[in-house]
Amino acid sequence: MTVARINGPMEVNIGGSGDVAVRGGSAPTVEVNIAGSGDVRFDGTAGDVEASIVGGGDVTIARATGSVSKSIMGGGNVNIGQ
């Protein structure tokens, strides 16, 4: 799924497999939960980020201005500002 932009809190839950891309915008909070395999990409600015990956998957966020919390069990990565 691809979304042009968001302005508000962002919450993504992937169970199984799937990809989510948000091309821009601003989110005061970003919460991502991946159970299985999937990738989440946010090309905007996030405030606080909470990411949980169980299995395989990647979370990529262009910019975060607040705290970043991540939990990874399996093969996954959380990339901020790359």
Beta-sheet strand percentage? over 45%
Q: Spans of 5+ residues with little confidence (pLDDT < 50)?
A: none
Shape: globular
Estimate the helix proportion, in percent.
Answer: under 10%
Q: What Rg is obtained from the alpha carbons, in whole angstroms?
A: 11 Å
Total helices: the number is 0
Assembly state (oligomeric): single chain
Total individual domains: 1
Biggest sheet descriptor: 5 strands, parallel
Number of strands: 5
Structural class: mainly beta
Query: How far apart, in Å, are the first and last alpha carbons?
Result: 21 Å
> Helix and strand succession?
EEEEE
Average pLDDT, all residues: 96
SSE map:
Elements: E1 2-3, E2 6-7, E3 10-22, E4 25-64, E5 68-80
Structural overview:
The chain has one domain. It is globular and about 30 Å long. 0% of the residues lie in helices and 85% in strands. The chain has no helices and 5 strands. The protein is an all-beta fold and 82 residues long.
Characteristics:
mainly beta; five-stranded parallel beta sheet; 85% strand; globular
Could you provide a short overview of the structure?
With 82 residues, the protein is an all-beta fold. 0% of the residues lie in helices and 85% in strands.
